Amino acid sequence: MSITAQAPVATPRTTDPMRRRAFAAGALYVITFVSIPTLVLYNPVRDNADFILGAGSDTGVLWGALSEVVVALAGIGTAVVLYPVARRQSETSAMGFVTSRVVEGSLILVGVVSLLSIVTLRHDVAGTAGADPASLVTTGHSLMAGYDGAFLVSQSLMPAFNALCLGTVLYRSGLVPRILPVLGLIGAPLLVANDLAIFFGLYDRAAPVTVIAALPIATWEFSLGVYLLVKGFRPAAVAALPPRR
After folding, report:
1. DSSP state at residue 152
2. If we measure between CA atoms, which residue out of 196, 193, 183, 199 comes closest to residue 213?
3. Is residue 239 one of the residues assigned to a domain?
4. Is the model's pLDDT at 15 over the cut of 80?
5. Average pLDDT, rounded, for the chain
6. Per residue in 73-131, pLDDT tens?
7. Cα–Cα distance, 218 to 222 (Å, whole number)
8. C-beta of residue 24 within 8 angstroms of C-beta of residue 81
9. What range does the domain containing 55 cover?
10. Residue 16: pLDDT above 90?
C-alpha cells in the first residue's frame, strides 16, 4: 500500500486595496516630476528670438511638451485615485482637490498647445513664399507669452490649492506622517504670495525667490509620493476613517 503525498494547495495572497491605492497615488505623484527638464528643454524657443523662423532645434521642445502631457494626466490621476479616500474625511476637500487638479491639468495642456503651435508654424509657414518674418516672430512671442501665463496659473498656482485641500485631509486623518501635509500647508500661502508678486510685475518668474517659494510645495509632493510608494497609508489611521457612504 503506497501513500502518495499531496502538495499543499497554495492560497492566493490578497492585497490590501488601500495599499494598492496608495502605491498608485505615490507612483503618479513621482511621475509628475518628469517635467523638470523642461526648464532646459525649452531654452531654444526662449533664447532664440528667431526660433519660429528656423533657428535652433525643436527636438527638446517636443520632448518637453510630451513630458508635460504626461504630467497633466498623472496629476489628474492622483486626484482620481485619492478621491475615494479623501472624501471619507471631507467630501468638500476631496472635491476641491479633484477640481484643482483638473484645472491644473487642463491649463498645462493649453500651454502645450501654444508650444506645439510655434513648432507647427516653424515647419509649415516659416520659409514659405509670402510668409512675413516679422509677423511670425511676433506670433511666436505671443504664443510663448500664452504658455508662460498658463504655466503661472497651472503648475505654479494650482499646486497651492492642491496642497490646501489634500493637505488638510491628510493632516486631520493622520494617514501619513503629519510633517508631510504641514510642508504643503506652509508652502501654499508662500506660493500664492509669490504668484501674486509675479502677476503684478514685482519681479520676473525666473527670479531666485521663485525657486525658494516653490521649494516647500515641491518637497511636499515628492515626499508624499515616495512615502505612499514605500509605506502606504498608516493602518491605524485607515481603520479610524469614517465608513464608506
Report:
1. I
2. 193
3. no
4. no
5. 91
6. 999 999 999 999 999 999 999 999 999 999 999 999 999 999 999 999 999 988 788 78
7. 6
8. yes
9. 18-233
10. no
The model's pTM: 0.90
Give the C-alpha separation, 162 to 183, whole Å. 12
Examine residue 176 and state whether it is found in any structural domain, yes or no. yes
Q: What is the pLDDT of residue 5?
A: 47
Distance CA 234, CA 128 (A): 62
Task: Give per-residue burial for 50-86: e unless 16+ CB within 10 Å, then b.
Answer: ebbbeebebebbeebbebbeebbebbbbbbebbbebb
Considering the domain boundaries, does residue 3 fall inside one? no
Which residue blocks in the chain are alpha helix, DSSP H? 17-31, 38-41, 43-47, 59-86, 91-124, 133-151, 158-173, 179-199, 208-230, 235-240
Cell numbers 497651472 correspond to 154
What pLDDT score does 8 carry? 47
| Residue 125 main-chain phi, psi, to 5 deg | -115, -50
Residue 237 to residue 185: CA distance in whole angstroms: 20
Q: Quote the CA–CA distance of 95 and 92 in Å, as a whole number.
A: 5
Most confident of 53-62, 128-137, 171-180: 171-180
| Domain-located, residue 46 | yes
The letter for the amino acid at 203 is Y
Per the structure, how many domains does the chain have?
Answer: 1
